[in-house]
Every structure is written in structure tokens, then in C-alpha cells.
Design a protein that fits this description.
Strand content: under 5%
CATH superfamily: TspO/MBR protein
CATH topology: Ferritin
CATH architecture: Up-down Bundle
């Protein structure tokens, strides 16, 4: 599918995807210094400095993947899955860090994981490159789900 405004659309996908980071940042900023350090964490909990670079790379890959799908297939089902998992992603930080509801964040991240699987499969069907770009995100959220579960179990 040819689009004259493809670079503008890439910028749009980057803005929307990184907008989720802004939502998360607002919810996280206070609690990451005050509440989160008080939680009992598993030994395999990554140091705080890991999260920023990892999420930055993942959000960039997510945006490029969505853009590739849009270029190939336009607006459709695959991008609906993308929007769904992105909305669930945006909800996680306010639930976990904003409301301190580890249980609700766990429910959200399980749904988000399923949405990421659905998005990965849908993207793969449109263009395998987009599917591959989602695999690191799926792996990270698999790890994050296990971490969320461990935090819930240890701090319930």
C-alpha cells in the first residue's frame, strides 16, 4: 500500500506509542522513590536503571512494527490488536504505581500479554518483520508478568 505521508505516519506511531511512556511516567514518578522501595522483591528483580533503556527500545520497535503493518495493510484488525494492547500497557503503571494495586496490575498485565500475543500473530501475518519486532516486547512482558506475580505474592 503506497502512502505519500508515510514518514508523518511513522512520527505519529512514535508519538502515540511513546505517549504511553508519558502516562506511565506520571504514575510512576513519585511511587518509584517512595512506595516501590518498601516492597519485598525477588532476588531476580532488575535494578531500576534497566527499565528506562529497555522500555525505550521496546516502544521504538512497537511503533516501527505498527507503522510497517499500516504501510502494508492500512488500518485494520492487526492495528486494532495493537491499540488494545497499548491501552492495557498504558493502564498498568497507574494501577501498579499510582493506585498501589499490584493485584489489578497483575490482571492487567495478563490481559496485556494475551493482547501482545494476538498482536504479534496478526502483525506476523501482515509482514513477518513486524512480528519479529514484537518478539522482544513479548519476552519482556512475559518476564514482567512473572515479576508482577512475585511482587503480588510477596506483598499481598
Amino acid at each position: 500500500m503506497k502512502h505519500n505521508n508515510q514518514w508523518l505516519m511513522l512520527a505519529g506511531f512514535l508519538v502515540v506509542t511513546f505517549g504511553v511512556t508519558a502516562i506511565g511516567g506520571l504514575a510512576t514518578s513519585g511511587s518509584v522513590r517512595s512506595w516501590y522501595p518498601t516492597l519485598v522483591k525477588p532476588a531476580w528483580n532488575p535494578p531500576g536503571w534497566v527499565f528506562g533503556p529497555v522500555w525505550t527500545a521496546l516502544y521504538a520497535m512497537m511503533a516501527v512494527a505498527a507503522w510497517l503493518v499500516w504501510r502494508q495493510a492500512g488500518w485494520g484488525g492487526a492495528l486494532a490488536f495493537f491499540g488494545m494492547q497499548l491501552a492495557l500497557n498504558a493502564a498498568w503503571s497507574p494501577l501498579f504505581f499510582g493506585l498501589h494495586r499490584i493485584d489489578l496490575a497483575l490482571a492487567d498485565i495478563v490481559l496485556m500479554w494475551a493482547g501482545i500475543v494476538a498482536t504479534t500473530v496478526a502483525f506476523w501475518k501482515v509482514t513477518p518483520v513486524a512480528g519479529w519486532l514484537f518478539v522482544p516486547y513479548l519476552l519482556w512482558v512475559t518476564f514482567a508478568t512473572a515479576l508482577n506475580f512475585a511482587l503480588w505474592r510477596s506483598n499481598a
